[in-house]
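fwd from M.: "can u put these together and see what the complex looks like"

so here's what she sent:
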Amino acid sequence: MQIITKNGVESEYLDLLSRLPNDCLMEIFARLDHNDHDEVATLSRRMCTLSDGSRSRCAKILVFGLEILQERRRELHFTMRLPRQKIFLELKDCTRPWDKLKKRNEGDVKDYKSHYTSELQVISGSVDGCAKPGEIIDRAAAILSKFDFQSLEFYSMCIDDHFLTWFEQIARTSRTLNNFILMNCFFDDAIRSDGRERLLSSLSLARPITMCLVFCCDASFIDETFLRNYAKAVLFARLGIFNAGQSRSLLFASKGLGESLSQLGMFSMPRLVINTDWLLSPLLKRLRHKTEGTWHFRTTRNIDQREIDTAMGSDMKCSSNGNRHTIELADANFKLDLRFIQDNMVATMWNIEAVFQYA
Amino acid sequence: RIYPLMRVTLTTSDGASVTVSRQLTKHSGFIEKAITDMAVDDNAVPLSAVAVDVDDATLKLVIEWLTEHRDDALPYPEKTDEERRADDIPAWDQAFVQKWDTKEDQQQTLYAVITAADKLDIKGLLDMTCKTLANKINGKTVEEMREILQLECDFTEEELAEIRKENAWCEN
């Protein structure tokens, strides 16, 4: 059999690809990405079957980011961030296999990021004609499994079993996730402590460089072990952890935690209390990294210049003015500005703001 | 135990014979198994002939590749799914494949070497040639792929539309 190609060249070596055994074809297809597989699937019946079989092993399509807003605990709004464009999507029905995410006009999209500053409205149940959020998450997970996201942002999400299963899958397979935000999120009533453990395990596995977790529920499940492991795994990470009722669930750090945290670039966790007696060593260690960043957490008292003078190295100089202290690396044009602020909510506590910056 | 000076005679599908060092054939799971199955004395020089279902011209290319890679570590490392990439072909291998690109029958040669690597169970060569072919079709449209692969479509227009609909991740 002969065919004539587009260039009009006759070839006697027809269907060369078809002559290869299936395992060879699977090896070749495993090195293509999902976009290529969409094309390969339309080449021929055999290629379509083999493409389906090797999709689970193929490279994912790199995408800048995915943002998901859950409105009133039901509707989910998706935004895909691609180079030079944003695509606004929704998925209301997922009962049929061909139900997909649908594009929305930009004009129809609310300024959803403002939601995380507003009070969360919780309405139970699903809307008539719309799938339940869990079903939508499951379907979205399947549809979006062909993408590898550099950034994931979730706003007002109810963290339930469906969400955790999806995020576990992402954490296991992602090669590029470097930004993770949970903004104004909360746990489903059915989720118990093991669900919180699942979230922490997945975050430890995914290891994004930037992580901001804002819960509108108690976040006391975030413990020292998680902080220690994350700081050890991601050099100069940017980590922020906030939750409702921060004064009620303080986390008192053990002596060694500060040293572990000295690897963090940015760090903000108002419910964490580090004893002032153990504070200077990690601060000075962090200063020596000469990397810009800020730290916020609580301490047990203010500090005085004498303590700093005793602790700091000969290559440093310190100046103090009341609750403000500046420690400078003499030969590096780099400094640490420290500010202690009396805590409004817990009278015996102080808030510390440490800014590492060029002088 | 491999005796590097030991030689193996390979008979090709088109009747040629090639004698090669056991140092090269140790990379071929097929030939090693054939030698084991023969249960011959390891000191026999040369060993009895091993028939391979590969033509002479392709076997010469395979031997050229094996000669360059004779010191590669064995067993060939198993790749995890994350490691299945196509952009890490060593420079010598790239030049080796590019030599065929100057020929009219370059596609046929590539397919012949892939098939030979598969039949002879030479994992490193199979890995490299699969990467090469993957690189050829990576990022191409279906029409371009069809031209490169010289592949006929056996779908109806309706079936194609259905597949495209199923594979789409979003609708306008």
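replying to her w this: Strands of chain B lie at 7-11, 17-21, 50-51, 170-171.
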